[in-house]
Amino acid sequence: MLHKRFTHDKDGATAVEFALITPVLVVLAFAAIEFGLIFYCHTTAGHAAWDTTRQLATNRIKPGEVEAKAREQLPAWMRASATITQTSTSPDPYANRYTVTVAFPATAASATGVVSWAYGNLTLTSKITMQQEPTS
Questions:
Q1: What is the CA radius of gyration of the chain?
Q2: Is pLDDT at 87 greater than 80 in this prediction?
Q3: By mean pLDDT, which of 2-11, 42-51, 71-80, 96-105 is the weakest?
Q4: What's the CA dihedral at 92, 101, 50, 113 to 10 degrees?
Q5: What residues form DSSP beta bridges with 126?
Q6: Cβ-count burial of 136 within 10 angstroms (0-12 exposed, 13-18 middle, 19+ buried)?
Q7: Of 101, 62, 59, nearest to 84 (Cα)?
Q8: E strands along 11-54, which residues?
């Protein structure tokens, strides 16, 4: 008799379904936000590398200013964990090519780390190379 009562009683079914699906939806929402932030940081790092390399190649900044110039263009929450390097190929301005690399761990770009199992120890890198323009 008790068995029939519970099999036909639908009270609370919606609450149980909601309780089962809500954690999945919350994780999906955080994953979307997290991957969006990582993508944003990677795009910003690429722009910072390009802009700094361009300024260096056009002789607007000196090689010693590269790290500070690139770092100030990165989002505040990942500036400290970014690695910025600059190389040149030749002392001759007609043959020199500058390369600026901005690298950062994906965990520094994410806000929550909810889905850090998906990207683990991934390091994202943006590398730009440009020919130096000789001064007149």
A1: 25
A2: yes
A3: 2-11
A4: 180
A5: 102
A6: exposed
A7: 101
A8: none
What is the amino acid identity at position 91? P
Beta bridge partners of 87: 99
The predicted structure's pLDDT at residue 114: 84
Q: What is the largest CA-CA distance in the chain?
A: 98
φ, ψ of residue 87 in degrees (nearest 5) = -130, 155
Prediction pTM value: 0.83
For residue 32 the two structure tokens come to 């979307």
Q: Say if residues 59 and 135 touch (Cβ distance below 8 Å).
A: yes
Which H or E run includes 129? strand 123-131
